[in-house]
Specification:
alpha+beta, 2 domains, Tetrahydropterin Synthase, Chain A
Length: about 190
């Protein structure tokens, strides 16, 4: 009879042991799945300290740039691969529409086609296209301030191009905090 009691007690304990065993296995599988997922996603990878420091430095520079708008936070210049000296790539963009303006105190008009040059990357051209209406307006304002007497000066076109460049950069700096236009060229120039 003692043997029967032990078997009955053993049978009663075995379903409880099985349930506990299944629960432990389920918990281990769940923990293993979570740890495996974290491992695969790179959670346990050693962080690159230099990258973190670079991000921190960039954020500090960006914050300093917001406080000091004169700092250069714009596009980077594109250099040529010459070992002797540093030379920059010239990138050109022609503004599609002609610009037409009256001369001050005259019946004459001036019509020009403008191209710009930059040493910086394509972000300058994206900014130019983005703010084309404001840039055209600024260039037209400069052109309409021209008098008929100024047309005869030897450096008239060069001076006009420089004034337009300064105004275009001022507009870009106003909207994008960076100008980047190095030169303005006239691809068409008519006075009538």
């Amino acid at each position: 009879m003692a043997e029967e009691d032990t078997e009955v007690e053993g049978k009663k304990k075995s379903p409880i042991v099985k349930i506990i065993l299944i629960a432990v296995v389920a918990i281990l599988l769940l923990v293993g799945t979570v740890v495996g997922t974290l491992f695969v996603t790179g959670f346990f990878d050693k962080k690159d300290e230099t990258a973190a420091e670079a991000q921190l430095k960039a954020l500090e520079e960006q914050a300093a740039g917001a406080q000091n708008p004169a700092s250069d936070t714009g596009p980077k210049k594109v250099t040529k691969g010459t070992p002797e000296l540093t030379r920059f790539e010239n990138h050109y963009l022609e503004i599609e529409k002609d610009m037409l303006a009256n001369l001050t105190n005259s019946r004459k008009v001036i019509q020009v086609q403008v191209a710009i040059m930059t040493h910086y990357d394509e972000r300058v051209f994206k900014n130019v296209k983005k703010h084309e209406f404001a840039l055209r307006s600024a260039a037209l304002d400069v052109m309409r301030q021209t008098t008929e007497d100024q047309l005869g000066q030897p450096d008239f076109r060069k001076n006009l191009a420089e004034k337009i460049r300064l105004e275009l950069n001022a507009v870009l700096e106003k909207f994008e905090d960076f100008g980047g236009i190095e030169e303005v060229y006239f691809t068409s120039f008519v006075v009538q």
